[in-house]
Amino acid sequence: MEFLFPNFLWALSLLAIPIIIHLFYFRRFKKVQFTNVKFLKEIKEETSSRNKLKNLLVLLCRLLAVSALILAFAQPFIPKKDSVDYSKKSVSIFVDNSFSMSALSSEVPLIEKAKKRAREIVSAYTEADEFQIITHDFLGKHQRSVGKEDALSLIDEIQISPSVRKISQVINRQNQVLSKSTYTPVSYILSDFQNSISDFETIQDSLFEVNLIPMQDVQEKNVSIDSVWFSSPVPLPNQNNQLMVSIKNHGDSDIDNVRLTALHNGVEKPAGTNDIEARSSVVDTINLNIRKNGWHELELKITDYPVQFDDTYYLSFEVEENVNVLSINGNQSNSYLNSAFKGLRFFELENAKASNISYSEFPTYNLIILNDLNLVSSGLGSELSKFVQQGGNLLIFPGQQLNKESMNAFFEQLAIDIITQSEAETKDVSRINTSEFVFDNVYLGTQRNIKLPQSTLNYLFSKYQSRGQESLLSYRDGTPYLLKYGKGNGNIYLCASPLNKEKNDLVANAEVFVPMLYKMAISSGNRKKTSYTIGKDHLVEIDRKPSQTDFNFEIKGPSNFIPAQTNLGSKMILDTKNQIVQDGYYDLTLNNESLAKLAFNFNRIESDLNYMNESELSAIKNQAFQVISDTADGSFEQIIGDRERGVVLWKWCLIFALIFLALETILLRWWKL
């Protein structure tokens, strides 16, 4: 047995005082004369012996009570380890406050159970120790050590939050505080240890002891709206825009009749029901007919209990009045191009000569066509390269009398294949790639009766695999007629023949030419974001108009704040810095004028309710990790005390002190002489 405060044992010397008082019995007796001396002598001897026995028992009870009380202050314990660490402790306690901790355990939310355990852990340590309380929020006030009372107050303030961190991030955060302390570090992690956040395999050997305390709950089923996207990168007005909705069943049993509803600009309508097999997902399609331009709000819902944070998905998107196309012509505009776009509603074609172009207007176009250019200046080439990198689409029809050296220098600048030679022979296009976006869902049934282009002047290209080419249309001999390159956030389309009816009859094949232009104009390697994820997507990118010189942006919604702003030429980057904690719609304003609507959703990382159990945590091959069962008998204050010091005995000392005082009272009151 050892003592936490052995200096209190000096107080045992005070036990000599009652012993001395007992030995020197200073009470004075008064003599009384009586006639029958022999009878009185027998009574006196019997009474005196009883009195001595009573006094000895009372003295013994008092000595034992005082001794037990002194031992309680010295805090004796039986150590469970070979050596006991008496040093002060720096204790970091992580309380998982993510959405999954709102699940019930014995009719009590896991978050409340975790807070109770955290209080017991704090109570197990002394006033001299220091504490760090940390949650998924990574708040500034949690990035420092506090005393015992302040730690208990911080635990009481913990609430459910949409923020989610990996376990490795939590341990790194704890290390930032513990590494600065001169006390002995120790860590506690109270969590449900979902598989989605338990990245223990990435954690190196920790420099301090990490105690894992799994919070057990009843395994729940869950269905969530996993993701939502438009089949077309650009939604168009007065047309059926296909919206794809992925609904996922995270449970181990099949779920039937999952109802999906859509709320578009305040009007709710049912979108159908789905049967979803266990551990699988379905993609439902909603045909959205958009009747007006501007910004739209769309809210999708499913009915699912008891986990509901992922049952709603918010989207916001802009429907522009027109899709703008620029044709840069070598000589004159192409009448077939003009006719094709004239027949396409919501498309605006603008013609310009290469010698008279406003580069600053490039970001306003969805598609730029190079028609019959024989050479491209370095300035134009640089601006077109920047246009593609930022998400624009570029379609190239080389000129009939092109300058091979100049054009190849331009192609090198774009990082696409270069022209190796030209052929003046008739070639027929025989294959069409219907699996790529440009020709996907364009033709119903077989394409055998489709008339494909024929050309008499053809350019052959190099075949560098690193350029990432994809053939959309091919000749019979396998050489490409129309190539696609994904570059940066945009796309480059390269035709092997000029856009001239005498050399290339593509313009006469309306069933290929018109849908090709249509899909190229609305294609994009960088789709505009329709929603953002709270805690994950904190950067918002918007287009900046050249006329905008004042940048007093403000985000208004469930919370109002001014975001950090970074000017990147034609783009503006806004940083929300984790100031958004509630899902829903937010207005982006400039000088109180609404510019855009932003939709934010909760992170779906915790939708999959799969956890690491105690046996899996115990199997982690890291000596710094220790598992403390949440189902263990007794409070954590006693469990942690036993782990730190062994079997604590001071409570038993207090109990025995009370017992001995009670015995003394019984002897004095009930033992009549």
Quaternary state, please? single chain
What do the pLDDT scores average to? 85
**Major sheet: size, sense and barrel closure?**
9 strands, mixed
The percentage helix is 10-25%
CA(first)-CA(last) distance = 41 Å
Based on secondary structure, the structural category is alpha/beta
The general outline is elongated
Strand coverage percent: 25-35%
| Count of folded domains | 5
Task: Give the CATH class of the largest domain.
Answer: Alpha Beta
Spatial sequence of strands, sheet with the most strands:
17-16-18-19-26-25-24-21-22
The CATH architecture of the largest domain can be named as 3-Layer(aba) Sandwich
Radius of gyration: 41 Å
CATH topology of the largest domain: Rossmann fold
Low-confidence stretches: none
> CATH homologous superfamily of the largest domain - what is it?
Class I glutamine amidotransferase (GATase) domain
Count of helix runs? 12
The number of E-state strands comes to: 35
3D architecture notes:
Helices cover 24% and strands 31% of the residues. It is an alpha/beta fold. It is built from 12 helices and 35 strands. A hairpin with a 2-residue loop joins strand 25 (480-487) and strand 26 (490-495).
